[in-house]
Amino acid sequence: xxxxxxxxxxxxxxxxxxxxxxxxxxxxxxxxxxxxxxxxxxxxxxxxxxxxxxxxxxxxxxxxxxxxxxxxxxxxxxxxxxxxxxxxxxxxxxxxxxxxxxxxxxxxxxxxxxxxxxxxxxxxxxxxxxxxxxxxxxxxxxxxxxxxxxxxxxxxxxxxxxxxxxxxxxxxxxxxxxxxxxxxxxxxxxxxxxxxxxxxxxxxxxxxxxxxxxxxxxxxxxxxxxxxxxxxxxxxxxxxxxxxxxxxxxxxxxxxxxxxxxxxxxxxxxxxxxxxxxxxxxxxxxxxxxxxxxxxxxxxxxxxxxxxxxxxxxxxxxxxxxxxxxxxxxxxxxxxxxxxxxxxxxxxxxxxxxxxxxxxxxxxxxxxxxxxxxxxxxxxxxxxxxxxxxxxxxxxxxxxxxxxxxxxxxxxxxxxxxxxxxxxxxxxxxxxxxxxxxxxxxxxxxxxxxxxxxxxxxxxxxxxxxxxxxxxxxxxxxxxxxxxxxxxxxxxxxxxxxxxxxxxxxxxxxxxxxxxxxxxxxxxxxxxxxxxxxxxxxxxxxxxxxxxxxxxxxxxxxxxxxxxxxxxxxxxxxxxxxxxxxxxxxxxxxxxxxxxxxxxxxxxxxxxxxxxxxxxxxxxxxxxxxxxxxxxxxxxxxxxxxxxxxxxxxxxxxxxxxxxxxxxxxxxxxxx
Length: 672
Prior knowledge:
The chain is α+β, with helices and mostly antiparallel strands. It folds into 5 domains: 3-65, Helix hairpin bin (Helix Hairpins, Orthogonal Bundle); 77-318, D-amino Acid Aminotransferase, Chain A, domain 1; 322-398, CATH 2.40.50.140; 436-587, 5' to 3' exonuclease, C-terminal subdomain (DNA polymerase, domain 1, Orthogonal Bundle); 603-671, Rossmann fold, CATH 3.40.50.10190. Helix content is 37%, strand content 19%. It has 24 helices and 22 strands. The protein has a 5-stranded mixed sheet with strand order 2-11-10-3-9. The chain has a 5-stranded antiparallel sheet with strand order 14-13-12-15-16, with helices on one face. A 4-stranded antiparallel sheet has the order 5-4-7-8. α1 (3-29) packs antiparallel against α2, α12 (436-447) runs antiparallel to α13 (459-467) and α16 (511-518) crosses α17. The longest helix is centred in the first third of the chain and has 27 residues, at 3-29. It is globular, with a radius of gyration of 26 Å. The model has no long low-confidence stretch (mean pLDDT 84).
């Protein structure tokens, strides 16, 4: 591979990691995904394929080595004793047959193999831990290793038993999905619209958002949720030897299951089940987006094991997105936080998969031209749990005469600044940082949970502040006082005082949160942590060159370019100064003292993948205890930490006499 090709692949991997991390945060933490499941799967698969072809360029913190997102702040953390992994996808019947062949080859068995097939429920995965038969903890999946303790909220879900019937003594971990049935979802949305509130985007996000209410404000939503168990992670009785028996035993304990579960003998029976389930999809009262296929025998599940992201003994067979036909009544332009001009097709409202759809993102000018979407066109749209469905194709035979190809406006529709499109970018942008649309989006981002978490700075208040000229740049929010706020519509004295108090709390933050709040392109929570840990304070980061930024492990050229470009703009530098003038302070991240801690002086090399722990997390835990991680083995190396599927370093370590630690020994050493 030439250096030029190598850099192109590295750059694409960096861009994919940044984009997937952003979508993971939007989906798992903020409950407001921007792209369809199918588009996400395509991004994820492209990254997986690039990493497989170029393993030397794979990042240790790649999304392919993680599950979900870190637990949200405000909840106690709960560490899953058995990691909650995601599932690998089979997109068609051919890939389903390939899964069967892989499983049988690893087990060394002839067909037919027995599988347990069940609907792929489109909700929020949870872990219910029972001790001596009573519900002790209910937690979200989180990042697969650590989730949020949402026990109080889950106890309001009527179908979750607080005490199991005739359950054995000890600890039992039940895995399942929390759902919002479609009919209840529609009733909740109707009530929200009556009260002038934004409707929920879809049942999945309404369910996940309900679980993450810190104070269980929306009790009606929590009581509308439904739980369905699908597995036992801990505490399976000894006489339970198969997935089917585990489900039967959970039923005996009083746990609800999906009624559509079916035992299938051989992959042909699985495919027949999936076809029948797809035909009945519209009759099922909850959202499903596929079928889950699991090896039935539990001992074979153990033999097959797992990789970091998913078990080898199960696969999700994804159904095609649901499609309907409608008409494009107009095309409008949304201006995003970074100035991106996004064309949105305004559709004649149509029901798709139980939800009324009236908008579909057209993404950018290239996408509009590729699909040739025009006002007046009849289009096929699809939805698979999406917030903004996709336009699949234009029905050219129904195109009315006189339509014209659509082009983005030459000027921002909000501030009238001339729009620009940089070389190498697909996105057209408004370059005016003072554009009201950008300021509104920046304020929403600033107030988000991952940034400064300003309670009370909601959608309608942001609109009033910007439209009324009170806030003209995002730092202006810290100049607000109770008198100014009290004069706004729907802002009484108490609400104004509460927001002023929230702003005062937000003035005292951490460096990573501040970096997220600034809205630097490609800098999410993970990258913000890396930058804060490396530079310690904002001033050295602002002065850093591209080369210095790229020297930070986990930061590539795309991120480095974004950071340098952001701080090189004098308007952004001035905003940082003004934030400080208005009292915003952050904790400096002190560098870890060298040579201190229980692992001081010890050198580690990592190989393979660790269950429930990214490479970056393992390095961080070693460094926190005073140890050092290097990439090359030598006789003076103290330990080789060998995870699943280790490389050639394992044999090299044995030849050099370096002590090899498996994951259990490594974690024991970390805890010593």
